[in-house]
Amino acid sequence: MSIATKCPPAQVALLEWTARIGAVTAEALARRERVSAASARARLMAAGRGGLLLRERPLMGQPALYTLTRAGLRALGIVGMQPPRVTAANARHAIVCAEVAVALECAYPDQRVIGERELRREERQSSATVTSAVLGSAPNGRPLLHRPDLVLRDDADGTTVAVEVELTVKSPRRLLAICRAWARSRGVDGVLYVAPPEVQRPVQRAIDAAAAGERIAIVALSAFVAAG
Description:
The structure is a single chain. The chain has two domains: 1-85, Arc Repressor Mutant, subunit A; 108-228, 3-Layer(aba) Sandwich (Trna Endonuclease, Chain: A, domain 1). Helix 3 (26-33) runs parallel beside helix 6. By secondary structure, it is α/β, with parallel strands linked by helices. It has a five-stranded mixed sheet with strand order 3-6-7-8-9, with helices on both faces. The protein has a two-stranded antiparallel sheet with strand order 1-2. It has nine helices and nine strands.
């Protein structure tokens, strides 16, 4: 009997959501399920005690992040994927991505939100660049890919929107290359940059330089992140 068959349906659903997003927080789960943070935290910790989720909190004063363990991946029958690594360098970005993912799910309940790791797994299984921007070619001829942080996908009609959670300013050259790649990408129907004010300005300059205004839009981070 597999681990998944031993898990209550609600716990399986929690694991599946965590797999899609990559790393989640109790605060994000509470917002998604419309329950208290304490209730959401208890559910995550229960999965942690069962060895299915790992709790890490590398940043003081910031929410803890929960990711699937090897046992959690096995419980879902996911192969070919390593457990995510949470570090002090990527924790803040992962926290915000979880919040943005939930905001998108709440705004578009009939659509599906997946994270970069799940997208990578889809592309590996299909041997195709499903929803990635192609920046160029490596010396071996393989495409150099840039994957979005999140994808909003309507499985009914295939409409796909790439979502970039941009918390820091990239170099102008790098940002321009990414915007140009998104402008010519046919794997997505549009791109949404979610950014704080200080990041919006350089992103807008890159969009203008790439003549990508019809394909790429910017939305304030404050529109997605819950107050407080």
